[in-house]
Design goal:
The structure is a homodimer of 98-residue chains. Chain A is an alpha+beta fold. Chain A contains four helices and two strands; from the N terminus they run αααββα. The relative contact order of chain A is 0.17. Helix content of chain A is 57%, strand content 12%. At the A-B interface, α1, α2 and α4 of A face α1, α2 and α4 of B. Chain A binds a DNA duplex (30 and 30 nucleotides) through α3.
Chain lengths: 98, 98
DNA sequence: GCATGCTACCTTGCGTTACAAGGTAGCATG
DNA sequence: CATGCTACCTTGTAACGCAAGGTAGCATGC
């Protein structure tokens, strides 16, 4: 999940509702109660930063973007994800019989 | 994790220490404190069954195997895993830029 | 200009999962 | 028969995602 968030923020400044929409478009259902704590945590870890921007219709929004540190972190997550999928593939390869 | 366990038990009767070895061989590190509760849970859900078998050197072992219900469950997990990897791929595909 | 509603932010409590640590007991070995 | 190894299992802890609920800005309609 974190991997997906950080990945989406890699080259775009997005606020929470947009994030949810992007994830939904990829068939990943998440609620805002999941994202807000995660975004705050990542921001406190200096992996994300944000700036306020006014909305045309409603209250202002927090647009998040990746810091340099966050970019490094993304590369680690990317590697970790590759390791996991590779491991699962290894497990599954031995058991094609079902 | 559950997916890996169920997958490994699909065509072999294995006991816990062997399971840990197979997972380790695929670069997945798990402790027995993780597996025992999981195996008991799956067995209570009638997804796994076990039989005792004596060891040549030490106490008897519980050899687990998949039930029919467990096989159905494995197919669900397999589909779920494919969905997730597909979703992550979609997310990543839009962000090759870093 | 005030009430209503929508949007966006955030918090709290719950269930689940994986781990570390510790505990019991069978069996073999010297 | 004492020691050690193996195998089983439990307990407490931390992290994660979700559901539900809560605050507050801004727009809209009367």
């Amino acid at each position: 999940m974190e991997f997906c968030i950080v990945s989406l923020l890699a080259d775009e400044k997005i606020y929470t509702a947009e994030l949810i929409d992007r994830l939904k478009a990829a068939n990943l259902i998440v609620t805002d109660g999941t994202l807000y704590p995660m975004l705050n945590r990542l921001q406190k870890g200096e992996l994300l930063e944000y700036h306020w921007a006014e909305s045309e219709s409603g209250p202002p929004r927090k647009y998040y973007s990746l810091t340099d540190k966050g970019l490094t972190y993304l590369n680690e997550l990317d590697k970790a994800w590759q390791d996991i999928t590779s491991s699962v593939q290894t497990i599954r390869r031995g058991n094609q019989s079902e």
